[in-house]
Amino acid sequence: MAGEAEQRPVLGLMGTVPIYWGEAGGIDDVLADRSEQHWARPVLESGFTLHPIDYLDADALAGVDDLLLAQPRALSGEENVALDAWVRAGGHLLLFADPMMTGHSRFALGDRRRPQDVTLLSPILTHWGLAMDFDPDEMPQVELVEADGIAIPVNLPGRLALQGESPPCRISAARVLAQCAIGAGSATILADAALLDLHDPESHSASALQALVSLAFASTGENTGR
After folding, report:
1. DSSP code string of 75-129
2. Residues whose CB falls within 8 Å of the CB of residue 60, separated by 6 or more in sequence, listed in order
3. What is the pLDDT of residue 36?
4. What share of the chain is helix, strand, coil (3-state, %, to 5)?
5. Contact assessment for residue 30 and residue 45, using Cβ atoms and an 8 Å cutoff
6. pLDDT over 60 (residue 133)
C-alpha cells in the first residue's frame, strides 16, 4: 500500500472547504481525531497523494503539477502572480469559486473556521479573461448542469462570461464551468462549490468530483486510477 501511495501523483490542495483536515474547531480536535472528516478526501486520495498548501508561492508549488483550490480565501497580489506563473509554466488547476455558499457549517457567520461564504477571486479571473455574474434574487435550489457528460450539482451558482480580446476559455454547463488553456497549462473553473458540501452532499457529488478531477488533470501520469 505504501508503494502505491508513493506512485500516485501529488495534488496540491488549498481552500476554506475543510477537505483535508475536516471540520475541526482547532488543532486539539485534529490531534484527538474529533473533527468530522470530509467525504471528498478519500475520493481524491484514491488517485493522488494530497499536499496541503497554506500560501501560494513558487516554493509551495514546486513539484506540484496539479492543484485544487476549494473556495479559497482572497489571494494576495503575490499569490495571484505566483498562481498565474505556475499555470502558464504547465500547471493544471481545478478551482471551485462559489459566489454564495449554501452548505451548512458548524461555525457561525464571521468565524474564520467557516468556509468562505463569497468568492473573492475577481483579479485572477479577470486576468484570464473571465467575468462572474450572480443573481442575488435567485432562490436556493439544487440543480444539475451537464458538461462533457458530467452531471454537476449546483446551488445558487455564478454564471461565467468571456471578456477582453480572444480569452483562452470555453464556457459550458449553463455558464457554470470554464475550461481555459493558459500558456502551457490549464485552469478548470466551476462557479459553484455545492458539490463539496460536507454535511449534506447531493447524490451526484462524488461522481461529479471524480469526473471534474479527470477533466482538469487529464494529462497527469498513468498512476491516477482514472
Report:
1. PPHHHHHHHHHHHHTT-EEEEE--SS--S--SSPTT-TTSPPSS---HHHHHHTT
2. 12, 53, 54
3. 73
4. 25, 25, 50
5. no
6. yes
In the predicted model, what is the mean pLDDT of the chain? 87
Residue 135: C-alpha distances to residues 139, 155, 176 (Å): 9, 12, 13
Q: Given the DSSP bridges, would you call strands 66-70 and 10-15 parallel, antiparallel or unpaired?
A: parallel
Residues recorded for the chain: 226
Per DSSP, the three-state class of 176 is coil
Mapped onto helix, strand or coil, the DSSP state of residue 153 is strand
What pLDDT does residue 224 have? 34
Q: Which amino acid is at 126?
A: T
Note the pTM of the prediction, 2 decimals.
0.87
pLDDT at 108 over 80: no
pLDDT of residue 166: 73
**How far is it, in rounded angstroms, from Cα 26 to Cα 112?**
11
Phi, psi of 163, deg, nearest 5 = -145, 160
Q: Which of 30-34, 198-202, 221-225 has the lowest mean pLDDT?
A: 221-225
Segment 88-96 mean pLDDT: 98
Q: How far apart are CA 166 and CA 171, in angstroms?
A: 13
Position 226 confidence tier, pLDDT thresholds 50, 70, 90? very low
User: In the structure grid, which three cell numbers stand for residue 11, read together?
Assistant: 495534488
Which domains does the chain show, CATH number per domain? 2-216 (3.40.50)
